[in-house]
Structures are given as C-alpha cells and as structure tokens.
Amino acid sequence: xxxxxxxxxxxxxxxxxxxxxxxxxxxxxxxxxxxxxxxxxxxxxxxxxxxxxxxxxxxxxxxxxxxxxxxxxxxxxxxxxxxxxxxxxxxxxxxxxxxxxxxxxxx
Length: 107
Hints:
This protein is of the alpha+beta class. It has helices at 26-32, 66-72, and strands spanning 2-7, 13-18, 51-56, 82-84, 98-101.
C-alpha cells in the first residue's frame, strides 16, 4: 500500500491509502476520494484546476514537464512546490508525501 496525506482547503488533513500498481493520477485519486476538484481538462495539464502544493516529498517526485510548467506559470499563487495533481502518477514515490489542495473550489 502507498500512504500519503491530503490537506484540504480548510487545512484539515486526511491520510489516503492506495494499493500499489493502481496506475492512477493523484487527480483521479482526489476525485475518487470525493475531494471537490474541478479537473476541467480531465488530466491534460490545460486548466490548472487540480493545483496542489507539495508540503512534503517534492524531491521524490519526477520533475514537472513543459506543459505542466507552462500551466503553473499562469497561476498567481503557484510557487516552486506547486504541481498539477493530474500530472503526478500514484506510485511508491508518493509514500509519506503531503499535498495541499490549492485550486479554487468549484462553484
């Protein structure tokens, strides 16, 4: 099992446990876990509505690719620890990571 933590927009943290080899993105796990994530582009790195801040474990993640970096550049609140959840694959590199949901809540 892979265990990581999600901090919601209210600052509340919840551990998430996912079986290894599930082949999902963090965005898909967030939506399946009923976090209110818009994910308008359905994981294509085109909308930034799945913006997360990596509070712990950033160095273990693969580097962001150009499309993700370009989209993050459009966000006023993006920082060096910002990522798009749709571009992060759930695998053992997420073990112990902490992600804060940064995207606006859908209305």
